[in-house]
Amino acid sequence: MPIVDMKYDRRILEMDDTELEKFVRQWIGKKTSKYDDVKRFSGTGDLGRDVVGFISKQKHEGLLDNYQCKQFARSLPTDTGLLELGKILYYAYLGKFTAPNAYIFIAPRGINKNLESLIQNPSKLQQTLVSEWNKYCANKIIENQNVPLHTGLKSFLMAYDFSKVSRMTVSDMLLDG
Fold this sequence. Notes:
It comes from Herminiimonas contaminans. This is Restriction endonuclease. By secondary structure, the protein is α/β, with parallel strands linked by helices. It has helices at about 5-15, 15-30, 80-95, 115-120, 120-130, 135, 150-160, 170-175; strands at about 35-40, 50-55, 65-70, 100-105, 165-170. The protein has one domain: Restriction Endonuclease, CATH 3.40.91. The protein is built from 8 helices and 5 strands. The chain has a 5-stranded mixed beta sheet with strand order 1-2-3-4-5. Helix 4 packs across helix 5 (about 120-130). It is globular, with a radius of gyration of 16 Å. It starts with 5 loop residues before the first helix and ends with a helix. The model has no long low-confidence stretch (mean pLDDT about 90).
């Protein structure tokens, strides 16, 4: 079992969003040989992707894992988590890339209890995202535009396997061998 140095823990908690994304990109690239390539996307136009591990040479047309990095002064709130998940699934629906094989929230300070409960109950996570689309996603995915939950998008969300959504904290990262 790896030794957890509290200095590393504190350093990760002190990182800003950009530093966290860069750290996760390096960590993912070194921790596993699972990926053919690892890329960091950031800023406006990232389409809900922060760090993507491409499982095959097909990149966005093949299997991929998305690591959604969120650095907050507190635990990741439900509304932010659902918006980010809705965003990446919306752009996958549009064919910009395949839906994530794994979707991992990297939240150094953890996620709130409600979001944790939803992630631990994938059918409830799916149901909440679909039934609360207007509240969490419709007017927030694209600035100054409405993204309605029409029949095709709803069918896409209903077909996605929400058990692929998980979360990781600093402790999880440092204990991960």
